Fold:
Amino acid sequence: MRRTPALIIGGGPAGSAAAIMLARGGVAATLVERRTEPHDVVCGGFLGWDTLATLERLKLDIFSLGARPITRLRLVSGRHVLEVGLPRQAAGFSRKSLDAALLSLAGAGGATVRRGFAIRDVDPATRTARLEDGEELTAEGLFLATGKHELRGLARPPDFTREGAVGLRTVLRGGLQGKPLDGCVELHLFDGGYAGLLMQEDGSSNLCLSVTKKRFSRAKSPGALVKALKDEAPLLGERVGHEDERHWQAIAGVPYGWRADDTRDGLFRLGDQAAVISSLAGDGVAIALQSGISAAKAFLRDGPSGAAAYQTAFSRQTKVPLGLADLLRGAAERPLSRPILMRLAAVPGLASWVSRLTRIT
Ligand SMILES: Cc1cc2nc3c(=O)[nH]c(=O)nc-3n(C[C@H](O)[C@H](O)[C@H](O)COP(=O)(O)OP(=O)(O)OC[C@H]3O[C@@H](n4cnc5c(N)ncnc54)[C@H](O)[C@@H]3O)c2cc1C
Structure:
């Protein structure tokens, strides 16, 4: 059995942010990521101004890597289109590039990054993690950053994930029909979900959908869902076109609204393991980065005993953005409240004010 001061499980934004900050504080963490290569994940690729500020703090300049500036929000419901300015500049950037850049920053800063190794289970009492090949790692500080994936020994209560949403993602290449997308994040609202579309660094467009389990089960496949939406969301149908062989990534059981209120000594839950905001708000990456930074600071200051105070404070910090994002999602998903939401969004300054409240600062 090997011992390490800090073990981070998962190399998404949350795990990398923790590794970067621990290394800056003089703790050489070990980060274990099960994927061998940089990979895309089900994510809209929208990075709000709070995310950009945090990336700057971590000393990562995504615009030098080709991230696309976004200054406007386009809301689409049926054939009704509404465009409003964002309070501050945001960005469109693929998760493949973002996660790779953050992980390499963590490695360059002094963290030991082990790619292609999956943790099979954890004994929370001893903070011992077992890898697939049987190797064991015991840590003073265990940072759980596995995103939506549950880890044996530390899983969220099943009730929470059972009715969770379904997330889907694909890439649209070539020119899109309809209004230019550059500088814009486009949200198509429909019964039981929404689709988000933006341009990423290579000029392709990232299309992401979040739908209720019920809505997805009726359609049975992503392609069938988009086809079924052609009357409800005709402008989305025009954007997507008629290609049947499109490759989709999917994730089920997304537990929107989940917050971890407490923990045990030495166990720090980060990112989606700490708080899951409705993706409509486009702030999950900000939460992931901020949780990694806060947890690392707590560990550097108080050691393993800093976990409980960190977890409680982080849960409190995310309460309002999560609650408001859930409210917006509920209103956007329902046929009766959606027109009201569109009318409210047209009130000058209101959309901008609400989008500020769903940010984590
Ligand atoms: C449909 C949808 C759209 C979204 N759109 C946006 C958006 O536009 N903007 C935004 O800010 N947020 C968005 N989000 C939210 C955002 O994607 C997440 O909040 C964010 O990815 C959380 O980061 P994380 O580091 O906690 O987890 P993840 O990014 O999921 O990273 C977890 C990592 O852990 C690794 N891992 C898992 N299990 C193990 C294991 N056992 N051993 C080793 N490694 C493991 C995985 O391979 C992965 O690399 C969206 C979410 C959904 C569902």
